[in-house]
Amino acid sequence: ARYEATVSAPVNIACIKYWGKRNTALILPTNSSLSVTLSQDHLRSTTTSSTSQEYEQGDRLWLNGREEEISKGGRTEVCLAALRQWRREVEDKDSAAPKMSEWPLRIASYNNFPTAAGLASSASGLAALVYSISQLYQLPQTPSQLSLIARQGSGSACRSLFGGFVAWEMGERDDGADSLAVQVADRDHWPEIHALICVVSDAKKGTSSTSGMQKTVATSTLLQHRIKHVVPPRMTEISRAITAKDFTTFARLTMADSNSFHAVCLDTSPPIFYLNDVSRAIISVIEELNRAALASGAGLVAAYTFDAGPNAVIYALEKDMPMIVQTINEFFPQSLDFPDPFGVLAQPSAR
Ligand code: DP6
């Protein structure tokens, strides 16, 4: 027999950033983080996994049609081993269940966005991989429990198992059993929030998140301040802002945390620069829009955030998005070179 499952997982963009591990093998973070999962329609990974006792020995993986090696002891292998272990528990309980845990796997994953665009694909990719095999194996585990495995594929991937607003709670335990993702609010709670992805550069980034954050942990004194005194109150405050649909607070904290993250990158030795001149110009434009809005007695209209690269993600309410898109297009006509003329207008996802 041959069994197959296909699922999609969207990209998530953090408002409170994950940056630093206290355990690199288990991928346990030095602080909690919180993100918005984007809509399935825009940036997602779709993964088909299949298994059969007739397959030749050895698991195999294809990313966007190209076969990738599953390296021994690597992150993908760790995820597959953990999923097999859970499948074994299903088989132990139900003697009629096919012994799939012993069969080779074939996994094929596609992104519906160019990987070259420099947009995080590891989060959606690993989340889709874990989710598709959990479906294939008919595992009883909840998304939070699955997030424990996705986390070991790539930290930020654990948040892509939920739609809407998602927290990755850092946890305290040494074995990582309490370092998992939980949904703060679903997409329908605050459907007015939209995200605009501004592709400033599609060049591959200089320093990967994985190695960059380790250098920060090893050398930055500012990181210690961030993880102890800055992030914990922000996690509480932004969760409250989401619950209350308070865009001004949400935007203020999102921008502050992006800037705090890039500050600890600069505080790393040697310093890590992810923003470029265009990124900084986008910050100035959004700050100016917000200044004008505040001066007219309104709340903030937009929030920028940047991950480990120069591309901006701008969160805004739907009603303000046309004005923001127009403004960005006026200032940066040639810098937004995603297929769509003004980048991707992505709605955060429902599931
Ligand atoms: C800046 O999840 O890519 O996007 O756990 O080593 O795979 P690994 O790192 P990764 O780091 C993401 C860092 C970030 C912030 C965030 O998404 O929270």
Secondary-structure map:
Elements lengths: L1 E9 L1 E5 L4 E3 L4 E2 L3 E5 L6 E9 L7 E4 L2 E3 L6 H19 L11 E7 L10 H15 L6 H11 L11 E5 L10 E6 L7 E6 L10 H11 L2 H23 L2 H20 L10 H19 L6 E5 L5 E6 L3 H11 L12 E3 L5
Parallel strand pairs: 7-9
Antiparallel strand pairs: 1-6, 2-5, 3-4, 5-10, 6-9, 7-8, 10-11, 12-14, 12-15, 13-14
The site of ligand DP6 has 15 residues, from α4.
List each distinct ligand once: ligand DP6
Principal-axes geometry comes out as globular
Order of neighbouring strands in the sheet with most strands: 1-6-9-7-8
- Count of alpha/pi helices: 8
Instruction: Estimate the helix proportion, in percent.
Output: 25-40%
Sheet with most strands: 5 strands, mixed
| SSE order, one letter for each helix or strand | EEEEEEEEHEHHEEEHHHHEEHE
Q: Rg to the nearest angstrom?
A: 20 Å
Question: How far do the termini sit from each other?
Answer: 31 Å
Total DSSP E strands: 15
Structural class, judged by helices and strands?
A: alpha+beta
Strand content: 15-25%
Low-confidence stretches: 336-351
Mean pLDDT: 91
Task: Describe the structure concisely for a colleague.
With 351 residues, the protein is of the alpha+beta class. It is built from 8 helices and 15 strands. The strands form 4 sheets. It has a 5-stranded mixed beta sheet with strand order 1-6-9-7-8, covered by helices on one side. A 4-stranded antiparallel beta sheet has the order 2-5-10-11. A 4-stranded antiparallel beta sheet has the order 13-14-12-15.
